Amino acid sequence: MPSPATAPQPFVIEEYVRWSDVDFAGIIFYGSYVRLFEIAETEMFRHCGLAYARMFDEYDIFLPRKAVHSEFYWPARLDDRLRIAAYVGKVGTKSLTLHFDVLRADAAALGAAGWMVLVCVDRKKLKPLPLPAGLIASLAPHTLTSPSMRLSRFRRETRFGSRFQPRRTGVPVADRSCSRP
Predict the structure, then answer these.
(1) 23, 57, 106, 122: which is the annotated catalytic residue?
(2) Which CATH code, of 3.10.129.10, 3.40.50.720, 2.30.170.40, 2.30.42.10, is assigned to 11-156?
(3) Residue 86: beta bridge partners?
(4) Which pLDDT tens digit goes with each residue over 77-134?
């Protein structure tokens, strides 16, 4: 069992709800969550040394989405500062599932959650391929199951100076470094 210092952790970003994200009532449009999920995904991969342009060239693959799922628990509003936790929940032979949990930066209650299945494909023929071992290894610091993530009791200082304490439905978050093998 890994020590708490080396245990996998979600990767966390912060992003504001922008004017283009909301409807006339100032509430986030459900499709805007996909934008937030993709920002968190891109930054997690980049943090792990897997910037997409370079990674796609190095491994000669693409990672198109096979499925996208979202659930909503409370409405985010214009100018809310959100924290999006991204982590790999499942690694298959030719696909991986990324999970995303969204909280307001000033609250511990889960506001939205989602997942995406990414399939590894050859860039020329778009046929499924096994996930590269280097990709899997690079994402290991952020690979954990959704239930284990939500049940763990990590606390994290926010940039706002207050303690982040997950509630029963909340999500513990902590940034972790990645290194490529």
Answers:
(1) 23
(2) 3.10.129.10
(3) 11, 100
(4) 999 999 999 999 999 999 999 999 999 877 778 999 999 999 999 999 999 999 999 9
